[in-house]
Amino acid sequence: MSVLIFVCVGSRQYPFDRLFKKLDELIEQGLIKDEIFAQIGTSKYKPKNFAYKDFLERDEFKAKLEQAELVISHGATGSIIQALKKGKQVIGVTRLAKYGEHVDDHQIQTIEAFAENKYILPVFEMDKLYETIKAYQDGTADVVRWENSNPNAIIDLIDRFIQENYEFEDKNSEQNSKKLYPAADEYTLQFKS
What are phi and psi of 98, to 5 degrees? Predict the structure, then answer.
């Protein structure tokens, strides 16, 4: 039975031709038989063997995400988390500066963080794409289900860091006590030594 592989690469000005060429190649070789739908963004290469659109409206994106069993995403945190929240299998593919796919290689760190926690399978070079897809298809992917039991975890982490590392000095404590949200310039942050 064929499943949908949904490929999403965002809407920024960076093309990701390398990914779409590799997917076409894998289909031509008969290695991928599942249906693929891709949101190709600003990529110059137009896929020959699968359906695509340059950009998707929010509702279209959500519909494709719902239909998909496997999501192949560029290394954007938002795209990856959306897929994980929907319980999808995710492959994170890094855009690399050396191919002109981004200004730097920050997507490596993003994908490594998700992969080290076993939420996704990473692909850094296209020669690993098929074996990574196959790992999901044959059930050998070493991943765990995404669970975000504390949606405020990142806020709590930042708050804890600030509390542990900085001292607050209220420049005008009497006036600020009457305000619900005092302006940031009414406080001084100093690193604790």
Answer: -60, -20
Residue 156 has a CB neighbour count (10 Å cut-off) of: 10
Give the tens place of pLDDT for each residue, 116-126. Answer: 889 999 999 99
d(CA 8, CA 43): 11
Domains and CATH numbers, the chain: 4-137 (3.40.50.2000), 153-191 (no CATH)
What angle is formed at CA 105 by the lines to CA 103 and CA 108, rounded to 5 degrees? 150
The one-letter code for the residue type at 152 is: N
Residues 137/147, Cβ–Cβ less than 8 Å: no
Three-state secondary-structure class, residue 184: helix
| Cβ proximity of 120 and 80 under 8 Å | yes
**Model confidence, pTM:** 0.76
* Overall average pLDDT of the 52-72 stretch: 95
Identity at 176, one-letter amino acid code: N
